[in-house]
Amino acid sequence: MSAETESVLHFEAVDLLQTRSADSALREVELRVGPGELALIQVRRGLLEIPLGDAVCGMMRPDKGVVRFDGLDWTAMSPREAQRKRHDIGRFHGDAPWISNLNIDENILLGECHHTRRDEAEILAEALALAARFGLEEITSKRPHLISQRLSAVYQLVRAFLGKPKLIYLERPMRGVVSEFSEVLIELLGEYRAEGGAVVWISSEQDVLDSTALNATSRYAVEPPHLRAQENTRA
Predict the structure, then answer these.
(1) Number of Cβ within a 10 Å radius of residue 85
(2) Which candidate, 197, 125, 135, 195, places its Cα nearest to that of 160?
(3) What DSSP string describes 103-159?
(4) What pLDDT band is residue 159 in, cutting at 50, 70 and 90?
(5) CB 38, CB 188: distance < 8 Å
(6) Is it the case that residue 3 has pLDDT exceeding 70?
(7) Distance between CA atoms of 153 and 68, rounded to whole angstroms?
(8) According to the model, what pLDDT value does residue 1 have?
(9) pLDDT for position 4
(10) Quick one: which of 54, 58, 66 has its CA closest to 25?
(11) Taking 60 as the threshold, does the pLDDT of residue 17 lie above it?
C-alpha cells in the first residue's frame, strides 16, 4: 500500500494565495495526516484568517500544488463527488458556522440526513448522546443568533463528530469560550482516533498547545507565508 493511499489528508507543495489579507497567504504547505493521527497547528491570536480549512474541504483551489483527501485530488472530482466527500469531514468553523435560516437542530442533522439513508430518529439519538457528553440534555431548535457562543461551540462539536467522519478539522474551538468541555473533547478525540479517525486541530490557546493528553502525532506553526513543522513532529 502506498503512502498516498494511507493518508487521509495530504497537502503537497500547496500555495494558498487568494485570501482577504496578503498577511494570511500560505506558500509551499506540506502536511500529511493518516488514520488515527492528530496534527496540532499553532496560530497566533491576532491571525484572523486561516485559509487551511477551505483547502482541506476542497472549497479553495490551490494556486499551486495538490490537496488530496482520502487519496483523491479535490480538483479532479466532479462537483457532486466533492460534495459527497465533504460529508466525510467534520468541521468546526472559525467563522459563520451555521446556515442562518435553519434552526440549530436542522443545521446539525442536515448533512447526515442528506448524504445517508439513516433514519432521522437514529441520527438525532446519536446527536443527543454526543451532546450529553458535554452536559447538554437537548439539541435546541432555536435559530443560531439566539444561542450563546458557548452553546454554539458545543453544538458545532456535536455536528463535527456526528456520523463518524474520516477527518475532523477543528479551527480554534476553544477561542472565546470557557474551556470547561476541553477534557470531554480530548476524550472524544481519543475514542475517535482509536477507530481510525484523523484530526487537524488549529489552536492559539496555550493550554491546548501544551497538553500531553492530546498525544499529537505532528505539530506545526502557522508563520505566514509558511506552515512550519516543529522539531518534535513525528513522521
Answers:
(1) 17
(2) 197
(3) -HHHHHHHHHHHHS---HHHHHHHHHHHHHHTT------S-GGGS-HHHHHHHHHHH
(4) very high
(5) no
(6) no
(7) 28
(8) 40
(9) 52
(10) 54
(11) yes
Grid cell locating 194: 482509536
Calculate the CA dihedral of residues 60, 226, 89, 20 and round it to 10 degrees. Answer: -40
| Beta bridge partner(s), residue 198 | 167
pTM (2 d.p.) = 0.94
Q: CB-based contacts of 136: which residues, under 8 Å, 6+ apart?
A: 151, 154
How many helices (H) and strands (E) are present in the chain, helices listed first? 8, 10
Q: Which of 1, 3, 11, 6 is nearest to 169 (CA)?
A: 11
Q: 112 pLDDT exceeds 80?
A: yes
User: Which CA distances in Å does 140 have to 67, 107, 216?
Assistant: 36, 11, 33
Q: In what order do the strands lie in the sheet with 38-42?
A: 89-92, 167-171, 198-203, 38-42, 218-223, 226-229
Cis-peptide into 225, omega within 30 deg = yes
pLDDT number for residue 235: 42
- Judged against a pLDDT cut of 90, whether residue 58 lies above it is answered with yes
Would you state the cell numbers that stand for residue 138, as one nine-digit string? 437537548
Average pLDDT over residues 30-58: 94
Beta strands in 7-63 (DSSP E): 9-16, 26-33, 38-42
> Scanning the structure block, which residue is given the C-alpha cell 497567504?
25
Amino acid identity at 217: T
- Quote the pLDDT of residue 232: 59
Mean pLDDT of 25-54: 94
